[in-house]
Amino acid sequence: MGTIVIFISIILVASILQTSTGFGFSIMATPFLLMIFHPHEAIQINIILTFVISVLLFRKIKSDIDYALLRRFILGSLAGVPFGIILFISINLNTFKLGVSILLLLLTLLLICKFKVKPTKFRDFIVGWISGLLTTSIGMAGPPLLLYFTGTDTEKRELRATTLAYYIFIYCVSLITQIIFTGTDKIIWQSSLYAMVIVILGLFIGQIIFHKLNQRTFRLFTYIILSCTGVYLLVDSLSTL
């Protein structure tokens, strides 16, 4: 019963964050799903549910998408996917957790320090490449996109829309790649199916929150999510060394 409550709580909070910010599901869900599932199960559940959320929201966000940028992200990610699956196959769980925690904390620090970057087509491709690599290796496509969008002062509606549209592609490709190279199992699909009702509730709540968030609150929300998740993972990984 305790495990079920934890699972429901993780999925609900992560779904709300994904809907209201465009990036929160993988950052919130993957680290905490590792408390319940093996790494490949946690990552594939995250991939399936993020894909579903993005598809369900597409009609609402399609008018805010930067399609030229989206194409460059997609092309870059295709080059990163193979490297990500190699990394996933060769890494152990503790190193996995430690790496994710450092990534999240570094990202938070750069955002707080008001990291700025000038967008270029080449940088768009590089961000897509890093995102593709991270998706197949740790199930997190969002961190490089979030840093890039924040560093270029992208408005929250465009950030959310372009990110969610990109997720439809990259998480579909990553799921297929994961299944081909690492397989899948019944518990992944059963857990994802059970989570769908919770995801729908999270979508409803997240839409309400999104319309009430101003740009400043949106950024503060981002810092809190990233730092709390990063600290939790760092403590957890160091405690098992």
Which runs of at least 5 residues are low in confidence (pLDDT < 50)?
A: none
Order of helices and strands: HHHHHHHHHH
Mean pLDDT across the residues is: 84
The termini sit apart by: 29 Å
Instruction: Using the CA coordinates, give the radius of gyration.
Output: 16 Å
Record field, number of beta strands: 0
In what range is the share of β-strand residues? under 5%
The 3D shape can be described as: globular
Largest sheet: none
Indicate how many domains the architecture comprises.
1
What oligomeric state is this?
Answer: single chain
Protein structure class: mainly alpha
Q: Can you give the helix content as a percent range?
A: over 70%
Q: How many helices does DSSP assign?
A: 10
Question: What this model shows, in words?
Answer:
The chain has ten helices and no strands. It has one domain (2-239). It starts with a helix and ends with a helix. It has helices at 2-21, 24-33, 39-61, 67-90, 93-112, 121-138, 142-151, 156-182, 186-212, 215-239. The protein is mainly α. The mean pLDDT is 84. Keywords: Cell membrane, Membrane, Transmembrane, Transmembrane helix, Transport. InterPro entries: TM_pro_TauE-like, TSUP. It is found in: Cell membrane.
How would you summarize this macromolecular structure in one to three sentences?
With 241 residues, the chain is mostly helical. The chain is 85% helix and 0% strand. Pfam families: TauE (PF01925).
Question: Could you list some keywords that capture this structure?
Answer:
cell membrane, mainly alpha, transmembrane helix, 241 residues
